[in-house]
Amino acid sequence: MPGYLSDELFHFVGNGHAADHERNYGILTAVLxxxxxxxxxxxxxxxxxxxxxxxxxxxxxxxxFVPTVTCYCDIPAEHLDIHVRKYxxxxxxxxxxxxxxxxxRPVIYVPTRADNDGSPYGTTLLKNVEGIYRGFHxxxxxxxxxxxxxxxALGGIPISPSTSAxxxxxxxxxxxxxxxxxxxxxxxxxxxxxxxxEREWRKYGNLVFEPGNVRRVVVADGFEHRFATAYPEYAxxxxxxxxxx
Length: 245
Hints:
The protein is of the alpha+beta class and about 240 residues long. Helix content is about 30%, strand content about 20%. It has six helices and 13 strands. It has helices at about 20-35, 80-85, 95-100, 120-140, 160-175, 225-230, and strands at about 10, 35, 50-55, 65, 70-75, 90-95, 105, 110, 180-185, 200-205, 205-210, 215-220, 240. The strands form five sheets. A four-stranded mixed β-sheet has the order 1-6-12-13. A three-stranded antiparallel β-sheet has the order 5-10-7, with no helix packed on it. A two-stranded antiparallel sheet has the order 2-11. β12 (about 215-220), α6 and β13 form a beta-alpha-beta unit. It is globular.
């Protein structure tokens, strides 16, 4: 259904400097030259699957866990206006099937409201989830000896209580807590911090690609001829966006 569902996911390169077209053009061309959408520190290759724990942070600020992920938006091309105001007019897209093959999936959005403190939802829900995690970590994981280093096949059942507890702990962080995305549901849908409008997907590690994997290359109006001359192998994929930013 055009305008409602999309079979491609976009990655834009202008986070924090959406209006700096020259800088964003340079980042986009570097991504294409490397054949790699990368997470910090932006090394080439498939990157790593890891999570940095920062116990001074919180789930509400998305600073408690910082995973090594690359991010994509699930927004039909004709509805990118709001998104590119925040992330700039330069990016590229891939078939959703390619990204799901490599483990990309939507984040878990949790809406918050100013009056959540009087309810078990939103902000209070996230504080409760975080409190339960912190208690489990402090009372069990900090004093639990490391189990024997035995390989377990995916889908296999852990063989001991300590292994089960550690696997549950690690899985809860990696596959659940690291994908939580709070958003203020009382903001307008075009507000820069109304994150639900981003329809974000995350993929652990980098995405290594060939030119044939790229569905579209998005550039700002006025950059299309310069780009096509420099990267003729992508000329047929160019989508031009107007000067929205």
